[in-house]
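DEPOSITED CHAIN:
***
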Amino acid sequence: MVISFKGVWRCVGLAEELHRFACFSSSIWFQSQGAILWKVVVLAALCGIWLERNIRVFEDHLSSGTLDERYDVIVVGGGHAGCEAALASAHLGAKTLLLTLNIDRIAWQPCNPAVGGPAKSQLVHEVDALGGEIGKIADRCYLQKRVLNVSRGPAVRALRAQTDKREYAMEMKKIVEKQKILLITVDYNVSNNIRHFSSACPPCSWTHHSTPNLSIREAMVTDVILGMNDDIEGVRTFFGMDFYAPSVVLTTGTFMSGKIWVGRTSMPAGRAGESASYGITESLQRLGFETDRLKTGTPARVDIRTVDFSGLEPQHGDEEVSWFSFDPDFHIEREQMCCYLTRTTKATHQLINENLHETPTYGGWVEAKGPRYCPSIEDKVYFYSLYS
């Protein structure tokens, strides 16, 4: 048996608990400037005990032949839909696995950190009625709330919340994890009995044994596994690990063979700063599914310190706050931030028209379809110039 350690072990929850214990121990044992040395000694000793214990656990798993990687439901992708699907499955009693590229980006809102709006708010209400979490978290993490289309009939009114993107993601992450300790299981080769532990996360599967029936792992799914009768049997990851389940839910968002463009420059990415996911698109195509590419335009971020607000129209949140969730325990009023409205001018339109050839769509580098009811600013200028 060969164990190859490359780099260091990452265990945020464990390190935090050990540090607290070491601080407590050193304060009891020694009240001197040398206490820091004892913190290091205690940490080293406890880490050694933890590593020895968990290596024995892995040895036991290997001696039995394989890890237990069989589930009732596998959910691929940890965005809004993936979190709701995984939680719903686990709450119904199914043994569920949530696979995501980065556990620290669960329920992340990279573009417009908002929940609700026309049509979408009705969906959030329905998800809440079925026991979902998105409405409850939005009611706790909003920066501003407004009911849209109040001048029209009730059928088209919609609640929209601008949310704190970091607080929202943290709250959803807490719900799906429900604990701090991070256990590590390793993608290993049983035939050679060689395992590689690495600080470069992909070969390792970082697992949270969390909400009853729900486990979370970091992995890139590349293939759907079929049985003899073309029944779903599970998924395979980039590093060759197989997870088995009769039901697989794909909530991959923008990551499947994703690519981002900034002017004429492009790079593979699921979104800015995060890698794309490869393999699952080709796997679906082999199964007979037709795929197509979609595109979305992300507005540039503006440094608030450079904005002259004197010429902008303030837009305050509603004085009487409305709620997504039907549970009053989550109706927590908080101070709202003010938004500001601005409008384009003929000079803006001229600048855009003169530089249409610099955009991926009008420059001919991208042929993907954009969202039908949310056109980009260059599309608005190009198609609706008569309304300016």
User: Anything to note?
Assistant: Residues 1-65 form one domain. The two ends are 73 Å apart (CA to CA). The first strand starts at residue 2 and ends at 6.
